[in-house]
TrEMBL record:
Protein name as annotated: UPF0187-domain-containing protein
Lineage of the species this protein comes from: Eukaryota, Fungi, Dikarya, Basidiomycota, Agaricomycotina
Organism annotation: Mycena alexandri
Keywords from the named record: Cell membrane, Ion transport, Membrane, Transmembrane, Transmembrane helix, Transport
Record-level GO cellular component terms: plasma membrane
Transmembrane region(s): 21-43, 55-76, 370-388
Amino acid sequence: MVAENPLFRGGWSMRKFNATVINDIWPEVFFFTGIAAMVAAITELKIHNLAVQNSLLTVLGTVLGLFISFRTSSAYERYQEGRKMWTNIQIASRNLAQIIWIHVPIERTDKDKVQMSTVQSVIEKKSMINLVQGFSVAVKHFLRGEPGIYYEDLYPLISVLPRYASTVGPKTDADMLPLWAASEDQDHPLRDARPPPPSRTGTTSDLRTAVSSLAMEDDRQSQGGSWFRRGKMSRANSVDPEKALAEIQSHVPLKPARNPPPSSLLDYFPFLRIFLVLTKCFRRKSKHTARDAMGRKIKPSFTESNVPLEITIYLNSYLAYLLRNDWLKPALATGLMNNVASLQDTLSNLDRIGNTPLPFAYQAHLRMSLWLYLLVLPFQIVSALHYLTIPATAFASFLLLGFLEIGQEIENPFNYDENDLDLDSFCLSIQRELHEVTAHTMPDPSSFIFSAWNQPLAPADRRTAEELTLNADQEYKNSAHPDAAPGIAAIRRTLLKNWRDVDRITRQQ
């Protein structure tokens, strides 16, 4: 997403230029400018007077401007709502991770009096937090019209989930669970999948077999590679976020985490699209590049995905598992359930935003009305502006068509366009936060509160907590108020002095 003002930050670049709508509106601007040039030339050369009365110019222009403003505002509202929904995912993911990591006990015994070891508890909780992280990644692929689970940033997080309903006996397609059946690949059947071999510390060759490694590498080359590997690894400051994920063997070659439509010269030099239109009937239709008649990329449509739903089902199942064993307080269980419900609600809202564009009849009628207005505009202003009709029409068409195209551009902000929301950045932010939560060691408050680093009663009493508790048998005294009775009375006197001092200091100009 390009959000900086190129006039003040970093200067212009081809990427920032491509983020404008000039690439999309230039054919129409060129067409209406040509009409204006023809009208001005015929009228000024006295060939024929094409001027007409401009009595309706102001009224129609005002009404059309209001409708275009409404179109742009409604699209921007959807853009902002999409950003709010991702904030909700971030908040709910953070809350779920904190409840699971901090409030689910480590030392515990189930209903059958089976003791769970500390390592087992940590592995269980960390695996469920990985599922929470996998939800945001699954939503990202769902919004981009990328079905299935076999992606480099998603598969390592949810590969632990069961594949078949039956855990004993032969595995058949009839026993395959919906999460895996929806992503089944006939070329790489799931029943041929094998769990990864045991890993040895310091090596990664044991994590994948030679055959699957070659298949995955071939697929990366054919798909263009990972989103940071593709043309960016040459930079010194490049990073590869997939290195922060587990390396899990997959029976299906994994797709890149980010796979935008391939770029071409048409995206950076839009004037070349005129040659694409002229030579359209002489070229074969390519199955790899989805472009319209003017050479613009066609946005992918939504495809149904059950991956985020399945993840929330497993999170709710984990909650039921904790409640069955009395490992979670009812109040905390309610909080965990509410946050899972928040993820489900957010998913439905994002689906609504992406799948409910403005009605086609409204968009088509608005665009046709604008075209008719710009087509008649030169005839109405040529008598007053003469040859200035040409730049005036060009400016008017650039302005009005630009706003109309901006509304079309940001109506669905979940794809790979430069103006779309940076979903990859949101997912990486959630990943960092969840790892920060699991890095918390849950220390006993007494291990850090009663130390020499803590001055709890400052500024009125600047003694450290270690000094205040040195003689625990004595009542608290404050040398600044020797007349106060030792104990709670002296503490209250100190807190009142704190309020007066802070009020005086913070109000000084």
